[in-house]
Every structure is written in C-alpha cells, then in structure tokens.
C-alpha cells in the first residue's frame, strides 16, 4: 500500500490552518505532517519533516508567500500548491506564483466566488495529489526562454489552437516567447477560473512578441494576435463570410472544465479543418484529446508535449493514445516544431472551407 502524501500547511491564520489540516486529513491518501504560520517556521519544518507537498498562503507576515516561493524553489525544489484569497492583490500574484514554480493554486472561499469551504477542500485535495506526482527538480537548473524566430513562415494555416491545464501557464508563455509576431491568429484554452484569464492574457501580452488579450464574443481571429478563453465561458470558433470569429457560448462544463479544450478544438476542426494547427500542452486528465483527434481527422497537423517536459503528462498522453496527436515534442522545441508545421502547409487561394 502506498504511503500517504506528506503535506506541510503554511498559513498565518490559525483558523485556516485548522481548516486545511482537518480538510486535507479527511482523505486517507493525505497526511498533514505539520503546520507553519510564516515562511521562517516553514523553512525549518521543511528541512525537518521532508514533506512531499507544500500548501502555501500568499499574504503572511515577515515574508509573503511569493517571496518565499522564489527563494525556496532554486534551493529546495518542492511541489507547491498556493492557497490564495480574492484580497491577495488579485489574480496577478497567483499567476506570478505559477511563474515562480508553484504547481497550481486554489482560491479561498469568498462571497463573490460562491464556493463553499468544502468545495475548496475537495479541489485542494485533488491538486495536492496531482502536485505530489510532479517532478520540480528542474527549478534548480532553469533554462533560458527561447529567442523568438525573426519572422513567421508563409503558410496556409489560418488559426492555431493551444490547450493546457496544470503547468500550462508557464508552458504557454514559453511557447509564445519562442514564436514571431507574424503568425496566424491563436486561440488558447488554459484551465483557469473566471477573473484570472484576463490577467494571464495581460502577462502574455507583456512577455511575448504577440498581441494577447482575453477573448470577447465576436472577436475576429487575426494574424499576430493570441486570444485567451475567459474562465467560466466556453470558446468556439465559427466561420462567417470567410472570417473566423470567436463565440462565447455558456457556462456548462465539458470534461468538468469551462472553458474546455475539447469544445474549442472541435469547433476549430469544423470551422478551419486542414487550415488549422493544434497544440496540446501539459495538463491533468483527458480534456483536448478528442478535440485534437477531430482536428487531425479534419486534416490539421496536431502536436502534443512530450512526457519528459510535462508538469503532468495527462492530456498529451491521452491525445497520443487516441491518435489525436501527429507528433510529440519537448516544450523547448515546441515553438520550432510549430513553425516547421506552419511552413509545411502551403498557402492557397480562396476562403475557409
């Protein structure tokens, strides 16, 4: 029998520490081995207890969670799930934590989010289990981001569809930073709650050669632009008068996700067919596998991230297993593989099929 996942809880609130200890410990697969009220106490307990996973609050006295994370990961890489609050300087700081090495984050309950404490604990238990499987040792040997290619290829592709989940914020940023601005329009689904996707798009806009924004209903797919599906809405593409347009449909979940990669990629297959390129990056579960298969069956080139470079090799594995992925590529080679794929699709006269 596998031993329980050893978790250290770090939060300055005694009430939250008690809630997390009890809520995580309710799962027999998880053992809370200690609690800490600040980064300094956490540092000592990490060395003494050797936890498998850390849950880390953002707002703490003496040193906040983000500063602690940035110091921790290069010296003592450890899977971390951030526990955030709506008051913790907004979505920006949670996304900064993902960029600093956190595996994922969970939002504390608030009146605005409509999530109960029990729902939050169910989500946290799931993400702790995922985090326990993640190899974060590479944070001691961070590689530089790829240098963007000087210009985009001449191509018949009109849209690039990218999907990701756990570990995806950094993976998407890495891929986009390696691409030139002269590209077909990009649509992106990253599993993320409402309120976070706008900030994520703004971060991509500042860090990559592309113009990035959170998608709005009716947005056209334009060369040089990357549109991020808003949290809590399903994004689909439609072809109207030879132009690809974004449609935001509703709040229903597919594969337990809204937005869903499958929903987005199926619509891309229908609207653009062989004039599209699909990319599936790191993530837990199977969302995107069937959508990528639909794209491949429609004639698109489809690329999935390989196991060695994934934070979680779930979605890409399922896409490969069902025949949805044309090829598997490492994260640091994905941008180059995309440019090669674009160059292989010759431009042709006429509008969309």
Task: Report on this structure.
The chain is an alpha/beta fold. The chain folds into two domains: 137 residues, Response regulator (Rossmann fold, 3-Layer(aba) Sandwich), CATH 3.40.50.2300; 186 residues, Rossmann fold (3-Layer(aba) Sandwich). It has eleven helices and 14 strands. Strands 8-9-7-6-12-13-14 form a seven-stranded parallel beta sheet, with helices on both faces. A five-stranded parallel beta sheet has the order 2-1-3-4-5, sandwiched between helices. β1, α1 and β2 form a beta-alpha-beta unit. The longest helix is centred in the middle third of the chain and has 15 residues. It is elongated.
Brief characterization of the structure:
The chain has 353 residues and is α/β, with parallel strands linked by helices. The chain has eleven helices and 14 strands.
Keywords:
353 residues; alpha/beta; Rossmann fold; 2 domains; seven-stranded parallel β-sheet; five-stranded parallel β-sheet; 14 strands
The total number of structural domains is 2
The unreliable regions are none
Contiguous helical run count:
11
Strand order of the largest sheet: 8-9-7-6-12-13-14
The biggest sheet, with number of strands, parallel, antiparallel or mixed sense and barrel status, is: 7 strands, parallel
Strand content: 15-25%
Report the radius of gyration as a whole number of Å: 20 Å
Total number of strands: 14
- The CATH first-level class of the largest domain comes to Alpha Beta
Mean pLDDT: 90
Query: What is the H/E order?
Result: EHEHEHEHEHEHEHEEEEHEHEHEH
- Quaternary form: single chain
In the CATH hierarchy, the third-tier topology of the largest domain is known as Rossmann fold
Gap from first CA to last CA: 55 Å
Give the helix level as a range of percent: 25-40%
Structural class: alpha/beta
CATH architecture of the largest domain: 3-Layer(aba) Sandwich
CATH superfamily of the largest domain: Methylesterase CheB, C-terminal domain
Shape: elongated
